Amino acid sequence: MRLLAVLTAFALAASAVPAHAGWGRTPVGTPVVTALADQHRPLAVPDGDGGAFLVFADLRAGGYDVYAQRINRAGNRVWSADGVPVCSASGLQDMPRLVADGAGGIVVTWEDHRGTSYDVYAQRLDGDGNRLWTPDGVLLGGANGDQVDPALVSDGAGGAIVAWTDFRGGATSDVYVQHVSGAGAPVLAPNGVILSAAAFDQDSPALASDGAGGAFVVWNDFRNGSNSDLYMAHLTAGGALPWGVGGVVLANGAGDQISASIAEATAGGALFVWTDTRAGNSDIYGQRINASGAKLWNANGLAVCDASNDQQFAVLQHDGADGMFVAWEDARSSNDNIFAHHLDSTGWPVWQVNGIAVCTAPGAQLEPQMVRDTAGGIILCWQDQRGANVDLYTQHVNFEGAPVWNGDGLPLCNAPAAQLYPSLVPDATGGAIAVWEDSRNLLVDLYAQRVLEDGTLGSSEPVITSITDVPNDNGGHVAITWQASVFEAPVPNVFQYRLWRRAPGGQWAAVDSAGPTLGAFYVRNGSTTADSTPGVTTPRTAFKVEAEAFDRTHSWWSAPDSGLSLDSQPPATPAGFLVLSLGNGQARAKWARSREADFWKYRMYFGQEWWFVPNEFTFRHTIVDTTWLGDIEPGWWIKLVAVDVHGNESDAAFALPEPSVGVEGGTPAMAFLGAASPNPMRETSTLRFGLSRESDVHMRVYDQQGRQVCVLASGRLPAGQHLAAWTGRDARGNVVAPGVYFVRATLEGREFTQRIVRVR
């Protein structure tokens, strides 16, 4: 390899443009999907490695299809730039939902109108975005009438339990459920089993795992004929309904109990919150049940917030100790704001009664989303109309219920136009990742942003932004570029960066280090474990970057990324190429052995003119040694190239077989002038000539206009074989221009001519 193996480092200017998108550190977001037409209502779940999976409805083909994307914790799109299709069958596919499958991928369900009515389908994707089940999905509910509004929860074994609103019974709706296995097979009866056959409508199911492969399901239920109550059922892993068909009451007080959210609790129970109008206006109520369905709080739930005016659209997070965090839209101050609360496992309010204000800025704050941090608090984001457009804001509330960031939150994205319908997931380090609809480009695209636990946007860890081939080398090296950790400045806390490389066996090893230089980006040249070779699987080498803290006890790690090296440098032209005619249509060739470390073989080509092109039609032989003996037509030229292990061919050495001259290296039987080698030449080309007796020799170089360029030999020489070299210069020592030149020699009174092509 020609490139030195020493790794060099330098800081790049802040204006350097990375090859990946990556998280930005200003509230504008990073593009996730920007395909033509609109992308709507993204929903996300954690990918298990600090990034996120998301699904969305997509109009790029004219009608709604379901697509998915994965972004890693560095903010880079892992799958195709604009996502991968989950289902692009005929008709409409809409309302996708997803869960992690527990094996590095996801299960997705959606409404599907490829037939005469809406049905429910599902698909599973692995961590690389490959569809694992029937290409356009597995049919879960396809009875007469519409099956809509699917919801799902993981079964813990690669499959999912899916419930939906079902109109197979006519004008009123029921709730059905199906279990699809990790292999994509429906487990329960075809088209699902009914959870409630009560009168009037049952709709809008929500699910949580029971911790044992089954699920708890809650839904809106109008069986009393006047208002909505909440009912719930338990579906076991074996498909049983221990609480009976029809379910049991969760809440049936005066007014409506509607729009329940549910979360898994420990010991096989569940947590619920919902909108409740028992007092005349909308309030937020909650409940906790055990594995048997027994209500552990008041019979019809506890008031999470019953402040004046309306509270609605509550979202729920388990607090890790069988209590709950709840956030909602709150109009107690006339316009909608964001409030939140924390109830412990007994239903006791940990924070102040009726919750704490997360944001009370002017204008409306809507659609709160919430995740837990790693220190007993929560991070929220919401749609915010305090300005001229709808923007996204975020806030961190600590364990004590105190907002940590600016009073009414920090802008998560305040780009032009509207940012809508955020979906928020934890980033595994105490922060969160939000994905949303964004109309800054007129069409509706999907953007994302990461917020750290301290309110910083972007990444705390270094971020690999590109791994690219080092150009014009002999392979074996890539350039790794990364964005500095936020802990490098303004308060220095990075002792050093270390570059790690993964070996083919999977082990990681540190291969280089660099002290911080306060640069925005860094770049290293790193050696790879293999090169890309045509015709075989492309080998990629994985790297990651560690920012080691000054205390030397902890580090911030980039997400791994990989690149490949390409050998783009051809071998040197074979030297000393000589072909001797042996008579009877045979010739013998000899040349010097290649000194290239990645040399593979030689290829030999035959042509009738010196300028013929080596290609598949002129190819004759593959040779691994440095000699050849074989047949050739009189007057034909031979070209020889060296080939390296990556398929790169050298420039050709070429020669016309010289007349039979007796024993090679001894006194020839007659005078001859051999072909120049190498030819074409860049710096020096050598000609072999022979004399059968002592004789006068005159050898000169001429250009195409017949003008003498220089003298190569003049004088009397003894019998035997000799060499003459031309360095590509004229008689004054000036380098001549590229082109065709002629060597004319007078040997033993006979005239000989050879062509030499000089190239740059």
Write a short abstract of this structure.
This protein is mainly beta.
Kindly describe this structure.
With 760 residues, this protein is an all-beta fold. Among the domains are: 460-566, Immunoglobulins (Immunoglobulin-like, Sandwich), CATH 2.60.40.10; 570-657, Immunoglobulin-like, CATH 2.60.40; 667-760, Immunoglobulin-like. It contains no helices and 57 strands. A hairpin with a 2-residue loop joins β44 and β45.
Short descriptors:
760 residues, mainly beta, Immunoglobulin-like, five-stranded antiparallel β-sheet, four-stranded antiparallel β-sheet, elongated, disordered N terminus, FlgD/Vpr_Ig-like, T9SS type A sorting domain-containing protein
CATH architecture of the domain at 460-566: Sandwich
Q: Uncertain regions: pLDDT < 50 for 5+ in a row?
A: 1-19
CATH topology of the domain at 460-566: Immunoglobulin-like
Overall 3D geometry? elongated
DSSP strand tally: 57
SSE arrangement:
Blueprint: E1 9-12, E2 30-33, E3 39-46, E4 52-58, E5 65-71, E6 84-87, E7 93-100, E8 106-112, E9 119-125, E10 138-141, E11 147-154, E12 160-166, E13 174-180, E14 193-196, E15 202-209, E16 215-221, E17 229-235, E18 248-251, E19 257-264, E20 270-276, E21 283-289, E22 302-305, E23 311-318, E24 324-333, E25 335-343, E26 356-359, E27 365-372, E28 378-384, E29 391-397, E30 410-413, E31 419-426, E32 432-441, E33 443-451, E34 463-469, E35 477-483, E36 494-502, E37 508-514, E38 521-527, E39 531-532, E40 541-549, E41 555-557, E42 561-563, E43 565-566, E44 578-583, E45 586-590, E46 599-607, E47 619-623, E48 627-631, E49 637-644, E50 653-655, E51 672-673, E52 685-691, E53 695-702, E54 708-717, E55 720-726, E56 739-747, E57 750-758
Parallel strand pairs: 39-43
Antiparallel strand pairs: 1-38, 2-33, 3-4, 4-5, 5-6, 7-8, 8-9, 9-10, 11-12, 12-13, 13-14, 15-16, 16-17, 17-18, 19-20, 20-21, 21-22, 23-24, 24-25, 25-26, 27-28, 28-29, 29-30, 31-32, 32-33, 34-35, 35-38, 36-37, 36-40, 40-41, 40-42, 44-45, 45-48, 46-47, 46-49, 49-50, 51-52, 52-55, 53-54, 53-56, ...
